[in-house]
Design brief:
- This protein is α+β, with helices and mostly antiparallel strands and 389 residues long.
- It has 3 domains: 6-119, Butyryl-Coa Dehydrogenase, subunit A, domain 1, CATH 1.10.540; 122-222, Butyryl-CoA Dehydrogenase, subunit A, domain 2; 228-385, Butyryl-CoA Dehydrogenase, subunit A, domain 3 (Up-down Bundle), CATH 1.20.140.
- It has helices at residues 6-34, 39-47, 66-77, 81-100, 105-117, 228-269, 278-305, 309-312, 315-343, 345-348, 357-368, 372-385; strands at 121-124, 142-144, 147-154, 165-171, 181-187, 191-195, 212-219.
- It has a 4-stranded antiparallel beta sheet with strand order 2-3-7-6, with no helix packed on it.
- β2 (142-144) and β3 (147-154) form a beta hairpin.
- It is globular, with a radius of gyration of 21 Å.
- The model is unreliable at 1-5 (pLDDT under 50).
Length: 389
């Protein structure tokens, strides 16, 4: 089925809503409460072959578009943010392989394998000692013929213990500069994970992103052939911001839905009288529409530029993608907070059908994961030298 097929997009989004409503959503509170991996939701996505949705049809995947991924993440985010985040992070890794690994016979075969196993890929780009800069590494690939070894101190590895494989960054060689990086596919059989921290967070508790010492003994063919600088600017950064903001949009959408349901319930109690919070509801719906348009515009811009490496590598494009993350990470907090004020005590209670506790805690995670201050700093540095608007 072609990438731009409307029926594919509709089918995938409907499947995501069904999984969310019947499987991931009912388990979301338990996932959040126990800070456990959202096994139910991810297994359901695997069963529907949605883990390989972005893999081209020639390898057995569904060949969906970035817009499709965005819509799926928004749908899942309305039911279980942990399921949505794990799915989004996985698709970022898949996109990196699809867009930058096909020059390698190994990664072509890997894509075929992925469609058969529906395996889960985690991310390990951050490293202790680099101040949160994913474009800098301390650890290095040490080659010995066809083999390599790698040891990385990672402050977090997204759902690392639950992943089949991990994409991690490292310097190309021990004598390489800190920003001369490659990205490596770490297979489960080749790795050792030693936990170095726990994961007991305020929000996104089900992502189970503990810190680890990652030790690897693998094959050189498992190194993605493209430089990480290209992978980062052309794929990892833009798709990360698109799928993250999409799932935050899902959180915000559900928060507004709960606020609307609350207002309607109040209106039924007092026929003919408009609830006082109705005006606030009208305001937050407007803000939600702004957020939705912001995500959609950025997604379309990326899709238009996907085959233009120069455009994707420009400072102007990087700034716009960074601004997508900055804007939406603030909007989701604003929207959920407004929804909480509309619902009042009904939203403040944990055991209420209008509860927004989980939504609010997850919303604050949006500005903290890849901290907004660091992104503002990066934008400021680029604006000093960029000649583009």
């Amino acid at each position: 089925m072609p990438v731009d097929s409307p029926s594919l997009s509709t089918e995938l989004v409907e499947k995501a809503h069904n999984i969310g409503a019947t499987i991931a959503g009912p388990a979301a509170d338990a996932v959040d409460r126990d800070a456990r991996f959202p096994t139910e939701g991810i297994n359901a996505l695997k069963k529907e072959r949605m883990m390989s949705a972005f893999v081209p049809t020639e390898f057995g995947g569904l060949g969906c578009s970035v817009s499709d991924l965005s819509a799926i993440c928004t749908a899942l985010g309305q039911y279980c943010s942990a399921t949505a985040m794990v799915y989004a992070m996985h698709q970022i890794q898949v996109a990196c392989i699809v867009r930058h690994g096909q020059a390698s016979p190994y990664f072509k075969q890997y894509l075929t394998e992925l469609t058969e196993t529906e395996g889960l890929i985690a991310s390990a780009t951050s490293e202790i000692g680099v101040g949160g800069d994913v474009r800098s590494s301390i650890c290095a690939v040490e080659r010995d013929g066809d083999n390599y070894t790698l040891v990385k101190q990672a402050p977090v590895i997204s759902y690392g213990e639950h992943a089949d494989d991990i994409l991690t960054t490292a310097r190309r060689a021990p004598d390489a500069a800190s920003n001369d990086q490659v990205i490596v596919m770490v297979r489960k059989a080749n790795r050792t994970l030693e936990p170095t921290g726990d994961w007991n967070t305020l929000g996104f508790r089900g992502t189970c992103s503990l810190g680890f010492k990652l030790s690897v003994k693998g094959k050189v063919e498992e190194i993605v052939p493209a430089p990480y600088a290209d992978i980062s600017s052309q794929t990892m950064l833009p798709i990360s911001h698109i799928v993250w903001t999409s799932l935050w949009l899902g959180i915000a959408t559900n928060a507004v839905s709960r606020a609307r349901a609350y207002i309607r319930a109040e209106a039924r109690k007092n026929p003919g009288k408009t609830p006082a919070a109705s005006v606030r509801l009208a305001e937050v719906v407007s803000t939600l529409q702004t957020m939705r348009a912001t995500v959609a515009d950025a997604t379309r811009e990326y899709e238009r530029a996907m085959d233009d490496p120069d455009a994707l590598s420009s400072m102007a494009f990087a700034i716009r993608m960074n601004n997508l993350k900055l804007t939406c990470s603030k909007l989701v907090i604003d929207i959920v907070s407004q929804a909480l004020l509309i619902c009042g005590m009904a939203g403040y209670k944990i055991n209420s059908p209008y509860s927004l506790s989980r939504h609010l805690r997850d919303a604050y995670g949006a500005a903290i994961m890849i901290n907004n201050d660091r992104i503002y700093g990066s934008n400021a540095a680029m604006l000093l030298v960029s000649k583009d608007d």
